[in-house]
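Study both lines:
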Amino acid sequence: MIVPRHDFGAQKKKNNIVITEGALNVIDRDGLSSKSQSIKNSGLLKGPLTGICIGILIGGNSRKFSIDAGQITELSLQIKKAAESLNADVLLSTSRRTPEQVEDVLKKQFAGYPRTKLLIIANQNNHPDAVGGLLGLSDMVICSPESISMISESVASGKYVFVFKGSGLSRKHENFLKNYTDKGYIYRDEIGRLQENIERIWQNKPQVKIPEDNLRVSEALNRIL
């Protein structure tokens, strides 16, 4: 059995169980390079990338969690402040779950912003390599907090990952985020502290930490096979 830690709970671990830190994914260096090139060839980039790239992945509402326009407005302002301070480009993609009012705010904030080099509204012009390409091209990634898969993929890309806080997440989800934060895989804080945290991490450049989930699974399979 392969079980994410947030689903395993307080059970006693058995020899036939492999516990992963997050969701398994296929993110690797070669794949990111290929998807990055795909985005470059797509014509979606608005001009050449000039230096540091801040990637933003915005998901959508879940059972009790929701993203509202006010949060996204504040998030946008924090991102722009960080981009100006670091002389960085901005790469942004929504998902098919993103509410229309959130899409509208993002388009208003970033469509005409000179530092925006990629803006994908998934419900209008999605690209199959949007997430992988964005992760490959970015130096740091900002994620909304509701998608375990999206955060796991971002962390697996080997970039600094920032997750802003939100209410309405399940206990399992909060356990996942706490574990990732405690182990240094992500940096999680209130939206209003995002600029400060981005600048601090980029200045200090701590070691990027990545879970060895795929290695754990591979080693377990090798013991069987």
